[in-house]
């Protein structure tokens, strides 16, 4: 017959495990001190890492080139939605290399919020229908 160690010599978490366990459950030891410290560090750094992502939005375009716009869509000139719009304006999609902004409105530093797509575009002479030579802002 196999003798078990007395219960009082087992770790407290093992006593709880013995009390709650069934044949289908497995008990695991509690988190180690190092694991809990690492977890606390990760939780503490989350706001810092999240704040860095919010710094990506700018109020101006790099190098002063282009106009900061809020566009409903920023896509390739050959995109199935963009190409017909360009064709209706007489702009051949094959002549463009950079993304195109669709339905764009200018942004300034007092109105820097854009719920859709922020873009810096160098050619916005199409009454807001499209803006050409855009980069994501």
TrEMBL record:
InterPro entries, sorted: Class_I_Hydrophobin
Keyword Endoplasmic reticulum: no
SMART domains, per database record: HYDRO
GO molecular function terms attached to this record: structural constituent of cell wall
Pfam family, one: Hydrophobin
One Gene Ontology cellular component annotation held by this UniProt entry: fungal-type cell wall
Key words of the record: Cell wall, Disulfide bond, Secreted, Signal
Keyword Signal appears in the UniProt entry: yes
Location(s), subcellular: Secreted, Cell wall
Source organism, top-level taxon: Eukaryota
Family to which the UniProt record says this protein belongs: Belongs to the fungal hydrophobin family.
Protein name from the UniProt record: Hydrophobin
Species lineage: Eukaryota, Fungi, Dikarya, Basidiomycota, Agaricomycotina
